[in-house]
Structure of Ferredoxin:
Amino acid sequence: MKTKLYMHFPTKLTDTPVTYELIKHFDLKVNILKANIDFNMIGTILYDVEGSAQAIAEAITYLKNLGLDAELIATVITIDENRCTDCGLCTSVCGVKALAIGSPDWKLSYDADKCVGCNHCIPVCPSRAISGLVPEPVL
Ligand code: SF4
Ligand code: SF4
């Protein structure tokens, strides 16, 4: 299975080689989509992970036992359909084509598998219909 894994980890674990452990001990294919360590040395990582369901479940248990807040997520952004006017502006900034709009219904569609959590679509939405799970770096 392929899914997204989001982790939030405390200061004391920011130097733990978590990605290495996921690959080496759980035989997962791991792609880092987004990583951040803020000024308080609190970190977040968003991964695409691929492997058996059992290996992923065991990896989550391992991460939690380490003290990391780790969870599988189905979607990185949320689109409020009540606010969205299907104007299409957000599709112009989505480089991976996770957002699309077109015939026959000209309704916005979102492909969570393609989304890399860049958050570029959020500020361009005039209706403020999009919210993101993964925060931007704190400067
Ligand atoms: S967060 Fe980035 S990749 Fe995901 S839908 Fe928005 S612009 Fe596209
Ligand atoms: S920019 Fe906002 S209102 Fe326009 S299609 Fe995207 S989510 Fe909908």
Q: What stands out?
A: Residues 53-66 form the longest helix (14 residues). The chain has a mean pLDDT of 89. Helices lie at 18-26, 53-66, 121-124. Strands lie at 2-9, 29-37, 43-50, 69-73, 77-79, 99-100, 109-110, 130-132.
